[in-house]
C-alpha cells in the first residue's frame, strides 16, 4: 500500500473512530443531545474525505460536490454542538451564511466558471469564517473554564489553518490548474495532517468536557436530596461552611433559619407517604424560590429544612422566615385532599463572632423547639449568645 493511500485513509479512519466514540457516549447520556450531533459530524466527514479519492458512478464532478456537502454539514454539526455544549444559543443564521457562502462559491467555480484554486479558497474561507464564529461565541462566555479556553484557542487555530495556511501554500506553490497532482501537493498533505491533528485535539477537549459533566452530575447527586431538589445534609453543611468562612473574612452578618413541617407524621399516617412526599416537595419549592442564589437551602432531615442567609441579621432572617411561613400556610398543596392545610414552624439564629455551624444550628434548633412547643405555625428567635470558653489561669506559687 503506497503512502498516498495511507494518508488518504488517515482522516476517514480517525473520523469514524471519533464518531463511534461520541455515539457511545450519547447512548449512555441521552440527555446531552450535542453528543449525538458530534457523532454525526465526525461520521459525515469520513465519506467527505473518501470521496476526494474515490469516484462514484454518478461522475467525477457530482462526487466532488457530494464530498464537499458532507464537509459542510459536518462543519455545521460540529460548530453547533460546541456552542450548544456550553449553553449558548446556536447561531443558525451565522452558520448557514458562512458555510452556505463557501458551498455556493464551490458550486460557482465548479459549474459556472471552473477554477480549482478558487474552489479551494471558497470552501476554506467559509470554514475559516465558521471557526471564527465559534471562537466569538466562546469568547463572550463569562467565567470560562479550561475546556472553553482550549476550544477557543483551537477555534482560532482552525481559522488560521483554513485561511492563512491555504493562502501561504497557494502563494508559495502557485494555483492549481487541475486535479492532476493535486492530491500529492503540499496543500493537500498539510490539509490532511492539520485536519487530523485539530480533529483529535477538539475531540479530546470535548471528551474531557463530557467527563467533567459526568463528574459534576455525580458530585451533585451526592450532595442533593432527590425528593426536594435541595441540598442534602452533607451538601448543606459543606456549602454552609464555605459561606460562613466567606462572611467571617469580610465581617458580614449571617443568619440561620431552621424549619420543620407541622404534624407531618399525622399526615403520613392519615393520607400515606405519597402525600408526605408532596408536602415536602411543595415546601422545598417555596423555600428554593425564596432563597434564590443568595444563600444555601437544604433538607437536613425527614421534614426538617435549613437555610443559611449571608448578609442577613436576626431581623431580616425573621422577616424571611415569616414570609415563608405565611406563604406556605396560606396555599393548598397540590395532590393533597381538599381542606388539608399544611403549616411549618421556624427557628432563627444570627451568628455572633466567628461562631461555627454546629453551635449556630443548636441555637436555631432550640428556637425551633420553642415554636413547636408553643402552638406551631410560628417563628421563634434565639437571642442567646454562644457561651464563651472559660480558660482558668494557672495558679502560681510564690
Strand order of the largest sheet: 2-3-1-4-5
Structural class: alpha+beta
Q: Mean of the pLDDT scores?
A: 88
How many helices does DSSP assign? Answer: 12
Shape: elongated
**Helix content range:** 55-70%
Global Rg: 32 Å
Element order: H for helix, E for strand: HHHHHHHHEHHEEHEHE
Strand content: 5-15%
Q: Please tally the β strands and state the result.
A: 5
How far apart lie the N and C ends?
A: 101 Å
Largest sheet: 5 strands, mixed
Low-confidence stretches: 387-398
Can I get a quick summary?
With 398 residues, the chain is of the alpha+beta class. It has 12 helices and 5 strands.
Give a written overview of the molecule.
By secondary structure, the chain is an alpha+beta fold. Helices cover 66% and strands 8% of the residues. The chain is built from 12 helices and 5 strands. Strand 4, helix 12 and strand 5 form a beta-alpha-beta unit. The longest helix is centred in the middle third of the chain and has 38 residues. It starts with a helix and ends in a 16-residue tail after the last strand. The C terminus is likely disordered. GO terms for molecular function: diguanylate cyclase activity. It comes from Mesorhizobium captivum.
List keywords for this structure.
five-stranded mixed β-sheet; alpha+beta; disordered C terminus; 5 strands; elongated; 398 residues; 12 helices
